[in-house]
Amino acid sequence: MRTPCSALVLALVLLAGCSPSAPPSPSPRPTTAITAQVLGQILDEHAPGAFAIAGGDGVLSANQPTEFVRGIEATAYHRATPGHPAQTLTVRYSPTPFNDTVLCPAKSCTERDGVLVRLRDQRPVDVIAQRAEGLVQVTGSVGWFTTDRLPTAIALAKDARIGPSVDASLATEAAANPRWRTADQLTCGSAATQPPIALPGAAGAVEQVTPQALAAVLASHVPAACAGDDSVQDRIGGTVYLGSDAERVSLAVTDVPFDCKGYDRCRTTDGLRVAEQSDVPDDSYPYHLVVARQLSDGEHWVVVDEASVVAHKGDFPVALDVLKQIAIDPRVGASVDAALNQAGNDLPLRWRVAARTAE
């Protein structure tokens, strides 16, 4: 027989067993140390459309040109589009404590949307965001700091995910990003020489020529290992490399008339100007063989320039007749068929962005 006391104890035990228990605390999401590749993934989300992203250890410019801090960086490479040059955008992170007297001396920065925009000659050159641990710097081509694109740089600098550690899932996404490149993949590296390619037929639409289109024309005439953009302020240029930096052929469209000055020999034949330069400092400098012609619009010139160290010992690898055929190729002009620009974007050659190591 149960006593009143034992019955009360049993009731309390049963009541306690039916009481709702507190939900378990969620497990913390796994994290990992931030890397350049993770920076590249975040960069790709803010500025999509790059054909390549690369990075590694880097330095953040503090008080240029003498003050620097160590960190990691990633750069997105955007190829030229009709009427617009190639662009780069770089994001850097450093755990170094923020020091505004070094980073923004003499009121060289202005605050905007919670970050510092550093100015030079009253023009934005980079964006700096302070972190609880360290700082973020975003810099790049002039085009990224125009009125309509500066917000992208600011949003990237403010991205709260940039810090000493990041969500592990973000690192997994970064590792699978097909646009990530190694340092070797930014150069010609070990790229194998490919035979001349076939170009597509005309699409009908007309666009301003791009460096990629000019490289595609070159690749349809000569075997090449890789290609790149050789544009400067007064010319749009594409280049194919024949196996090394010193063996290459460039094709440019410019509104600056071709001048024989500076060449050892220059002549006009069949409406083409042919120039040669063989007076170079030593055998490591390439000879140049150039073919140029004025376009029918009366404003632009086509310039084909072969550079070769091999020519020190004999003939140029690409014969003069081939260079002439490139110069008179009817597909080349200041404006081209849209299909040619697309063929340049689809060119089955490695597209190099690293600076040349040869003149």
UniProtKB/TrEMBL annotation:
Superkingdom field: Bacteria
Signal peptide positions on this chain: 1-21
Entry keyword annotation includes Signal: yes
Keywords annotated in UniProt: Signal
Protein name (record): Lipoprotein
